[in-house]
Amino acid sequence: MQYALMIYGEPGYADALSDEEREAAYAEYFAFAEDERCVSAAQLGSAETATCVRVAGGRTLMTDGPFADTKEVLGGFCLIEAADLDEAIELAARIPAARFGGTVEVRPVMRF
């Protein structure tokens, strides 16, 4: 089954790390992306570059930035293939942001 791992963290959290810690974290992300269970992974641009789109009354409405005002922002995602939720959670725990105060949300992917 496929799961989406959505990575949330405070903007700039990696800036607080030492150069050595930051390089080690990036190496972990690259190693994670090479895991055969990782279908796809990407870091997102900053929240300041986001555009939110809604349709109301037949009109397309756009706003800058994320719609919700939160401390943590969606910074990246991974699409994984896992046997079950337990395996997906084990993989999510390997994501460095989870250790540095962030959150990794795990959701099953439902195909249309």
TrEMBL record:
Task: Identify the InterPro entries for this entry.
Answer: Dimeric_a/b-barrel, YCII
Q: Which residues form the YCII-related domain?
A: 1-112
| Any matching Pfam family | YCII
Q: Which family does it belong to?
A: Belongs to the YciI family.
Q: Which protein are we looking at?
A: YCII-related domain-containing protein
